[in-house]
Amino acid sequence: MHRRLPVLALSVLVLVFASLALASAAFAYNGAAAASYADTYWQTYNPAWPSFANSGGDCTNFVSQALYAGGISMRLSPTYSGNAAWYMVKKRNRWSYAAPWVNAQDQSIFLLQHLPGVTEVASYYGLAPGATAADHAAQGDLVLYDWNNDGVYDHEAIVTASDGANPDGTTNWDLVDAHTNNRYHAYWTLAQYNASWATTRIVVLHISATTS
């Protein structure tokens, strides 16, 4: 003979399991969704967000929007501060944002030090136009560029499309989208557009699918 659980206990259990299901579904990074967002807005900027194209560059703001579209949760202040904060919100018709949302160097610190599941998978120096190199990236990963190799990142882009297949047959994610300047499915080193390619350090960050 089975005893019936009280209605309240059953309700609590339902809520617990529902919360767990939502957590597992909502708190994950979808690189394909991030790439789709970037492909949509690489040239026609999303009017729902501010643009920094004419005020220092929009590259990191664009990547942040794509990461958010891919499922990375905002880290709002005052719960988070400094480079642990990551957000862009509108308050009383004015935009408020954390430095890692709009600055490549600050975002690199946020990703590597404050966002579990992010790892550096490639690093190169002085890749010339026409040179090919393995980025070890997946769709939705990030590429950071330090034009002068001074330890401060000046630009970033997001991996969006495949440039073919690796020797083992796996997908070779070597094309990126970017803002300021606007790029669509450009070869990931961007050396062909970069007069400073000989002094540029390029780093690729992989974002795990379990990252939120």
Quickly describe the structure.
The chain has 212 residues and is an alpha+beta fold. It has helices at 7-26, 31-41, 59-69, 99-102, 104-114, and strands spanning 88-91, 94-97, 118-125, 142-146, 155-161, 175-178, 183-187, 201-207.
Mean pLDDT, all residues: 89
H/E topology pattern: HHHEEHHEEEEEE
Could you give the count of β-strands?
8
> In which order are the strands of the major sheet placed?
3-8-4-5-6-7
Shape: globular
Give the CATH superfamily: endopeptidase domain like (from Nostoc punctiforme)
The CATH architecture classification is Alpha-Beta Complex
Describe the sheet with the most strands.
Answer: 6 strands, antiparallel
The Cα radius of gyration reads: 20 Å
Strand content: 15-25%
Number of helices: 5
Structural class by sheet pairing and helices: alpha+beta
Number of domains: 1
State the name of the first-level CATH class.
Alpha Beta
For the record, give the distance between the C-alpha atoms at the N and C termini, rounded to a whole number. Answer: 45 Å
Outline the structure in words.
It is a single chain. The relative contact order is 0.18. The chain is globular. The chain has a single domain (29-207), classed as Alpha-Beta Complex (endopeptidase fold (from Nostoc punctiforme)). The longest helix has 20 residues, at 7-26. It is α+β, with helices and mostly antiparallel strands and 212 residues long. The chain has a 6-stranded antiparallel β-sheet, covered by helices on one side. Strands 1-2 form a two-stranded antiparallel ribbon. It is 27% helix and 21% strand. The chain has helices spanning 7-26, 31-41, 59-69, 99-102, 104-114, and strands at 88-91, 94-97, 118-125, 142-146, 155-161, 175-178, 183-187, 201-207.
